Amino acid sequence: MTDASSTPPKPASQLRDIWSQFSTHKGALFGLIVLGSLILAVLIGPYLWVPEKLTVAEAIKLKNQGPSLRFPLGTDQLGRDMLYRMLLAGRVSLAVGLVAMTIAIVFGTFIGILAGYFRRLDSPLMRLTDMFLALPLIPLLLVMVMLFRDRIAGMIGPELGAFTLIVFAIGITSWMATARIVRGEVLTLKEREYVLAARSIGARPNRIILRHILPNVVSPVMVAATLGVAEAIITESVLSFLGLGFPPDFPTWGRLLFDGLQYMQVYPERVIWPGLAISLTVLSVNYIGDGLRDALDPRIRGR
Q1: Do residues 242 and 224 lie in contact, with contact meaning Cβ atoms separated by under 8 Å?
Q2: How far is 219 from 262, CA to CA, in rounded Å?
Q3: Tens digits of per-residue pLDDT, 50-97?
Q4: Considering the domain boundaries, does residue 284 fall inside one?
Q5: What does the mean pLDDT of the chain come to?
Q6: Which distant-in-sequence residues (6+ apart) come within 8 Å of 192 by Cβ?
Q7: CA pair distance 186, 63, nearest whole angstrom
Q8: Is Transmembrane helix one of the keywords UniProt gives this record (predicted)?
């Protein structure tokens, strides 16, 4: 008869333990509520708050208006509703963060697993990682955008072209931290008993990686992914703030900052609202990452 205490915990109980530890982190709960509210607002807000269509003459009369009941966040230099543009900009900024993070996490995990599992690939892949780490990120992104923006825009359009170029450029220059984290985990995991046992019975490397290595690096990858979203949003905001991001009629929070810069002294709210949205998003994502790191660490969860 098997002792009940020796049976492995069920996945449901593990998820409950993870949530129990995560919920004790007040900052992580605050970040989850704030980020969830922002995502909900940018997804359904443009359908609930639809500004009235104005003629050119009416829009010019309403330009640079302060907050009011008709325009809760005021209007911009062309008479457009800032609340509506903030909601649309949030969609793009969050989408850039998520897609760029996905590219960085997938590529970084792939490089990290290859470097950690196959000894002959470790040195060249880590030297490649060091080379990317040595490159100045913002100047490199500026060069990539300036070289390829017009070419890609001519093939797939200015909006989709800018989105594709920016998320790819950010993702392909942000994978190095994930690669180092995954490599360290794989170096430890490949010496575990269950991996050595799988090798001894003739299991192929791809099967060992998919069945035994990859599932056990999910936790650090999830933490890196949350932090990667914040970094991608900040990087896109910097590019848009420098005028090399999305086109003017395709709003992002960084682009709104850039547009409001010349009006900052007269209309400071033009930069306060997008700056506040970026700050809250990055802060909440970082808090969520801290909470996930503690919740997924069995040494802390078992206390």
Answers
A1: no
A2: 44
A3: 888 878 888 888 888 888 888 888 888 888 889 999 999 999 999 999
A4: yes
A5: 85
A6: 212
A7: 57
A8: yes
Q: What angle do CA 160, 165, 170 make, to 5 degrees?
A: 130
Asked if 206 and 256 touch (Cβ cutoff 8 Å), the reply is no
Between CA 255 and CA 275 the distance in angstroms is 11
Q: 96 with 233: CB under 8 angstroms?
A: yes
Structural domain harbouring 259: 92-296
What pLDDT sits at residue 11?
A: 56
User: Is residue 74 in a domain?
Assistant: no
Whether the per-residue pLDDT at 7 is higher than 80: the answer is no
Cβ–Cβ < 8 Å for 51, 84:
yes
Token readout for 182 is 């995954």
Give a yes or no: residue 219 inside a domain: yes
Other residues' Cβ atoms within 10 Å of the Cβ of residue 89: 26
Residue 256, domain CATH:
1.10.3720.10
The predicted pLDDT at position 5 comes to 44
Please indicate, yes or no, if residue 200 is contained in any of the structural domains.
yes
Is 81 strand, coil or helix?
strand
| Tokens coding 95 | 């989408």
What are the tokens at 36?
A: 């969830």
pLDDT beyond 90 at 266: no
Determine the residue type at 272.
I
Which residue's entry shows tokens 């940018």? 42
Distance CA 277, CA 120 (A): 46
Q: Tell me, yes or no, if the pTM score tops 0.70.
A: yes
Q: Considering its fold, how many domains does the chain have in total?
A: 1
- Average pLDDT of 160-185? 90
CA distance 72 to 47: 16
Q: In a 3-state reduction of DSSP, which class is residue 75?
A: strand
39 has pLDDT over 90: yes
Q: Is 213 helix (H, G, I), strand (E, B) or coil?
A: helix
Q: Is the dihedral of CA 84, 86, 89, 90 positive or negative?
A: negative
Position with higher pLDDT, 262 vs 187? 187
Q: What is the reported pLDDT for 33?
A: 94
